[in-house]
Write a structure and sequence with these properties.
Blueprint lengths: L1 H27 L5 H21 L4 H21 L8 E8 L3 E2 L6 E3 L2 E7 L4 H10 L4 E6 L2 H15 L5 H13 L4 H9 L8 H11 L9 E3 L2 E2 L5 E2 L4 H10 L4 E5 L3 H11 L4 E5 L2 H14 L2
Parallel strand pairs: 3-6, 6-9, 9-10
Antiparallel strand pairs: 1-4, 1-5, 2-3, 7-8
Helix pairs in contact: 1-2, 1-3, 2-3, 9-10
Length: 296
């Protein structure tokens, strides 16, 4: 008897999740939009609530309905923030002036300004709007449902107080050096960037200041790092190459994990900038030493 009850409960649980996953799949496939998706979940909650009232004297049915209602209510609360992304239609990557980590270091952080636009009919309309605002647009992307869903999940994680990529980068730098220099503290307290792609540039700068190497060339740098100094992939490589090219850099250091796409984008953009990919900060130091020796 107990086994039968457990099986029945498990089956009801599975069917409820299957129902939810079906409409999540349709949403992620851009078949339905955020409003429709949330409306379906809300209507399902209302139907279940009404059914519980109707079958309140039939305990087995009521118990199953209550299980489904509880599961769907939790899932609905999890998905509800999607409503805040319903009006977002496009994302634009905009030129952002490279920043030298420390004056005369020659190490420049390459970042992208990202702007989300609401209720825009087309990429052309976005381009016209941003041109009026005197912004140098690199790329415009129409937002898809999977992109909005990813943004929603990132927002929820931030609400829950989980560490952002930038905070994780800070911990990785602290782990590598065993402490946090005041320069890094100032950067994390005042810089507005939210990602972790400045990690390699910051690590190289600290090593240079500590006397590990010298640099007399302007070098564009992008790359995330971990506590062992290993360099990991970053996003927006195409746009970062464009920024480095527009800013007049001849040399750029990127993660090896981004090397294939960088090669593709170099051909597409017909750029002459020399790009060097590295797996570890030590390789970046070797590359900088080589360039400084070659171009004295």
């Amino acid at each position: 008897m107990q086994n039968a009850k457990r099986f029945s409960t498990s089956l009801h649980f599975s069917l409820t999740l299957l129902f939810y996953l079906l409409f999540l799949f349709l949403y992620l496939q851009d078949v339905i939009d955020e409003i429709s998706y949330l409306a379906i979940l809300l209507i399902s909650l209302l139907i279940l609530s009404f059914s519980i009232v109707v079958f309140r004297k039939k305990h087995r049915i009521k118990r199953k309905m209550t299980i489904s209602l509880s599961i769907l209510l939790l899932l609905f609360c999890y998905e509800l923030p999607l409503i805040g992304f319903a009006s977002q239609t496009h994302i634009a990557d905009i030129y952002f002036e490279p920043r030298e980590t420390v004056e005369r270091s020659g190490i420049f952080i390459i970042s992208i300004e990202i702007e989300t636009l609401n209720n825009m009919e087309s990429k052309k309309a976005v381009q016209e709007q941003l041109t009026k605002e005197h912004k140098d647009v690199l790329t415009i992307i129409g937002l898809t449902n999977p992109m909005s869903y990813q943004n929603k999940n990132r927002t929820l994680l931030s609400w829950l107080g989980l560490k952002s990529p930038k905070e994780m980068m800070r911990e990785d730098l602290r782990e590598y050096f065993g402490k946090e220099e005041q320069r890094l503290t100032d950067y994390f307290n005042h810089d507005q960037a939210i990602g972790n792609s400045a990690g390699l540039a910051l690590l190289l700068t600290e090593l240079m200041i500590n006397g590990t190497f010298q640099n007399h060339l302007p070098i564009a740098v992008t790359g995330a790092i971990n506590g062992k100094g290993e360099v990991t992939a970053v996003g927006g490589i195409k746009e970062k190459i464009q920024i480095a090219e527009k800013s007049g850099f001849h040399f750029m250091i990127i993660p090896s994990e981004n090397s294939k796409e960088a090669e593709t984008f170099q051909k597409e953009l017909n750029t002459n900038i020399r790009i060097f990919d590295v797996n570890h900060v030590d390789e970046a130091v070797e590359q900088i030493n080589y360039l400084n020796e070659k171009y004295k």
